[in-house]
Amino acid sequence: MKRFQWAAVWLLLLPGSAMVHAQSLNYENQFARPLGEVLRQIESRFGIRLKYEIDTIGKMLPYADFRIRPYSVEETLTNVLSPFDYKATLSGKTYKLKPYEYPRRTVADGQKMIAYLRTLYHDGASFRKRAEELRPQVRRLLGIDELLQKRVEAKPILSKIRKMEGYSVQNFALQTLPGLYVCGSIYAPSKKGKHPLILCPNGHFADGRYNKEQQIRMATLARMGAVCVDYDLFGWGESILQVGEPAHRTSMAHVMQALNGLSILDYMLSAARKDIDATRTGVHGGSGGGSQVVLLTALDDRFTAAAPVVSLASHFDGGCPCESGMPIQLAGGGTCNPEILAMFAPKPLLVVSDGGDWTASVPTLEFPYLQTIYDYFGAKNQVSNVHLPGERHDFGPNKRQAVYDFFARVFALDKSKLDEAKVTVEPREALFSFGAKGELLPSNALKAEQVAAYFEKGRFRDMLSDIGLQKKAAEWVASLQLSQKDKEAYATTLVYNHLRAVRDWHNAHPYTTIPEGINPATGNALSKLDREMIADSAMPKEVHEKLMNGLRKLLTEAQVEAILDKYTVGKVDFTLRGYQAIVPDLTEKETAEILKNLRQAREIAIDYKSMKQISAIFEIYKTKCEQYFNNNGRNWRQLFKAYVDKRNAEKRKAKEAQNKK
Ligand code: ZN
Q: What structural domains and CATH numbers belong to the chain?
């Protein structure tokens, strides 16, 4: 009894953490301690301050004390933080604790990456080979081609032209995907004739394309003789009306901004514009705009000159999802922006960098690498770097000057017109296409309230799929050429809702939800297709009824049939023609029976997702048709054999005739 009391007193005298050690740290529990406690201990032990941008609550660190290196705070922090994918970076006297950042690495990492890339090629031919591998992979990882397929061909909505001193400004809204618009402004020289084009994707500088410095740069280049186009970031400016602000912080921003750039390029180089000299097509932008420049040059070879500003680095891909939301840096087994940009060689390229951000490494790392690649093509003088060691991350006067000088040189612009003081800076609203409150949004435009949910959880793939179905529904109904717009809109909604319900049911009930087993009619094991069809056939009947009742109320029977034929790609007609060929003396009664069966097949098939399933439904009804023949005095097998023999004979004849020639 006495002994126990003494032991209790002794324990109370021990400092808290030592008590924990003594009581609970051992091999069996992996010497685990709460991360927060370990970090506090490191602070006092090494006399440092930690700033938390991470969450330590509930995190247990195994082998905690064994990770501490008495001789090195940095090694200690790395060892303690790495199990949680956290890192520490020294800023001043404080260590900032941050989560792992996949687009941001260290300059040392960049050096190793560039050194590695340099081992992959040694001349123009081997670099071209690498580029041929990279380019399609960048496209695939970005997902751009899928979007390009969904793009609508539309004329832009153009505002009145505002005439300024030596240039003019016109706003535009260009529809890219159905219901989605990109808005921007075209700054054009006052002088008539053909001018070079410069696309100017934006970065994240305050106020985007409405920013005073941005307007000054656009207008000055226009005064010097180039048609300059800038446009909103996805989820910035007027795009907020359509997708809301959170949309910008999604991976969709990455691919949408690329799509917007390419769509604007297509329009500006189309026959609709008489003022563009396509042989001089430039692209330039700062910060996040520079990331877009790199990407656009890789996606489209119509650009003839490029200038990324305060952006390019081998160790930073751009920290916004609009720059690194899609994993394009994984192309070719691992790449970085300088290599993607190097594919632009040997065309004129300017890289602007400064000493106050991640581009500080450009003169010693990224630029020499670009020079090597350009040298492969005998074009070392076509790549240049303006480095401003005393400057920070902005698009200030010296950076603008570098861009003016570059485009003046490569596009033969008139430098005597370089005078920023002559530019009229317009109020934000003047640059809007859709009015101060979005009151001019077209009727088909998506609105942020409708699509906000897609962006909350990064469900933009669903949005694309929905847009695809919407487009399909609209095309099918448009083929009916209904004269009443409201009727057309209602029919489109009915079809769209049905297509979506079929897709959603299919996705929510994969074939794996049906157990493996046998088909009781045949005794064969159920195939994947069988199981898929069982799952899909369980879709509630009201989905089908809603569509059919709605269409029948709205349309004539022939029009309803035309819609159903769209779902089933004209299989009723196609199959009937087959029967007519096989049974040349098909009677009216038989034709009616076949049509009855095929129409039934069609109406059932529309509730299935894939063409394979739709074909399988038609097979069931084709079997019924053939049984009908057999039960009514015909021999289907004979008829079919005769038909095949006849076709083969014809083919033989044709071949013989060919041989004779
Ligand atoms: Zn962004």
A: 31-99 (3.55.50), 114-157+185-230+256-411 (3.40.50.1820), 443-472 (no CATH), 481-641 (no CATH)
